[in-house]
Amino acid sequence: MDLLIEVTNTPVIECLLLLLLTGDNGKIDWTNNLIKDYRLQFMELKEKSEATEFINLVIQSNLEKEVLEDKSLTHLHIRLEKQKRKLLKTYFTSIKQEKEFLDEYEYVGDFNSLISKYFLQMKRLQLVIQPDVQIATSVHSKSKITYLTARGFWLNDKGERERKYVKSLGRLDEFDGGKKDPLVIKLGIEKIREESLKDYNQRYPD
To answer: Does residue 113 share a domain with residue 139?
Structure first.
């Protein structure tokens, strides 16, 4: 028997095809340090509504306040900002002016793939910083002891959410607050973050 509690409800990954969607009622915050230097390039884009939607997906943070203020995660926040800058710099690169791009990429599809790759990397790092975790309880068939586990989710190469990590948290009766004990949630997040960070570093070594 498994009982699941949603700890963090990360939305299903925005499909990378959002790059091709039309219509966006939002506006770009040009005071944001990530984007403020690209206003002239933005004005030269032909499809501004699509660009606005994509840019906002990059610069807007879905991280919870306590995660943003957690000093122990500062190094990860720095890496995330670096990745966002890399993504936006690539997005606003002029093919005509940056001739070296033509040496490596010949087709428009290759540029789209590069942007998609950087976008997925950004979303994965966000998932490291704020893991998508469920706390599950299971009863041992013989001892009848209830145990707690943390189940963590990841984004596959298609950008789809899938369960990848399972970490033991100990016996349920070891926590005064049961499965909703704040320590259980904290421990589960820490264990899943540790595992997902290992995968991220292996996939994207600095």
So the answer is: no
Q: Quote the DSSP letter at residue 32.
A: S
| Low pLDDT (below 50) residues in the chain | 1-24
- Distance separating alpha carbons of residues 88 and 103, to the nearest angstrom: 20
Coil, helix or strand at residue 45: coil
Q: Which residue among 64, 94, 129 closes a domain?
A: 129
28 and 118 in a single domain? The answer is: yes
Range of the domain at 143: 3-8+131-203
CB 85 within 8 A of CB 46: no
Count the domains in the chain.
Answer: 2
Q: Taking phi first (over 0 means left), then psi (-120 to 50 degrees means alpha), and beta for anything else, what does residue 170 get?
A: left
Last residue of a domain, one of 129, 157, 189: 129
Reported as a single tens digit per residue, the pLDDT across 68-95 is: 999 999 999 999 999 999 999 999 988 7
pTM: 0.84
Identify whether residues 157 and 77 lie together within a single domain: no
Rounded distance between C-alpha atoms, residue 66 and residue 189, angstroms: 13
Q: Characterise 163 by phi-psi region: left (phi > 0), alpha (psi -120 to 50), beta (else).
A: beta
Taking the mean position of all CA atoms in its chain, how far away is CA 183? 24
d(Cα 9, Cα 131) in Å, to the nearest integer?
Answer: 9
Q: Please report the DSSP string for 131-146 in residue order.
A: --EEEEEEE-TTT--E
